[in-house]
Design goal:
Helices cover about 40% and strands about 20% of the residues. It has about 280 residues and is an alpha+beta fold. It folds into 2 domains: about 190 residues, tt1808, chain A, CATH 3.90.1570.10; about 80 residues. It is rod-shaped and about 150 Å long.
């Protein structure tokens, strides 16, 4: 008797539409999730158990259209299946609910604070992140955690630590794709933001430049040390020559003293031969 798998009868990701055909009305709705995805690729280069979707449909019911967050993160799934990648995210294939969903609010609300929030809670997504760059009086970044079936706002801090993911999420001014503005970033447990590809390239360039400067300085110091050693060698040779000269002068003075002593003795002998006591002349 064959085992019956009801999931095998459901449509696959290749058979389902890959989006809801609703165009984004703000470029940030693509760029911000794209940056978060790029940062994860840098932070987790060896990990193959995560997937970050950008403007991709999540299918949770074969009879209902997909829900399409601006971005979402799943853990414990294959990073990619083949070179064609995922056309959509189908729960009955993945068998894993995303751990985080992200919505970037534009000028026109799309139910980020109401219907989508309720849908993500019903779906069982642990974290729901809303970023509203147009807010002035209320927090621009809000992070909700699913507790007992409903979302509870986490403490208003920046960044906000997400222990199940092992990263924090927060906002900070920076430059991405040449655009200086406030962006969303991932942060490590020490509260340090993960660097963008541009920032990594700039840091590598700075480190290379610093290494060149340090090498040049080391070369100059080595040359200076060599010059000082050469000078010390010359001074030592000069001191040796002066010592030799002093020794020669001392020997010469000793010889002259000995000669003077012999002349004095000779003179004293001559005086005595003449009957003169030389000591009486003193």
């Amino acid at each position: 008797m064959l085992n019956y798998d009801p999931l095998a009868c459901l449509p696959s990701s290749e058979e389902l539409p890959d989006s809801d055909d609703t165009p984004v009305d703000n470029e940030l709705q693509d760029l911000i999730p794209g940056l978060l995805k790029a940062l994860l690729a840098i932070a987790w280069p060896e990990r193959m158990d995560w997937f970050f979707g950008v403007d991709m449909g999540i299918y949770y019911d074969p009879d209902l259209p997909a829900i399409v967050p601006d971005g979402f993160l799943s853990l414990g799934v294959e990073r990619f299946y083949d070179e064609n990648l995922r056309p959509s995210y189908v729960l009955w294939e993945e068998r894993r609910v995303p751990v985080l969903a992200l919505e970037v609010v534009s000028q026109k609300y799309r139910g980020e604070y109401s219907t989508k929030k309720a849908e993500y809670a019903k779906l069982g997504i642990l974290y729901y992140v809303i970023y509203n760059p147009n807010r002035r009086r209320k927090p621009r970044l809000e992070v909700y955690k699913l507790i007992n079936g409903s979302y509870t706002a986490l403490e208003d801090s920046n960044p906000i630590w997400l222990p199940e993911i092992g990263l924090g999420i927060g906002m900070e001014r920076g430059t991405y794709l040449g655009i200086p503005r406030q962006w969303l970033y991932w942060y490590n447990q020490q509260g340090e933001k993960l660097l963008t590809p541009e920032e990594n390239a700039k840091l590598a360039q700075q480190e290379t430049q610093e290494a060149k400067q340090e090498a040049q300085q080391a070369k100059q110091e080595a040359q200076q040390a060599q010059q000082e050693a050469q000078q010390a060698k010359q001074e030592a040779q000069q001191a040796k020559q002066e010592a030799q000269q002093a020794q020669q002068e001392a020997q010469q003075a000793q010889q002259e003293a000995q000669q003077a002593q012999r002349r004095a003795q000779l003179l004293a002998e001559q005086l005595r031969s003449l009957g003169i006591n030389p000591d009486s002349l003193i």
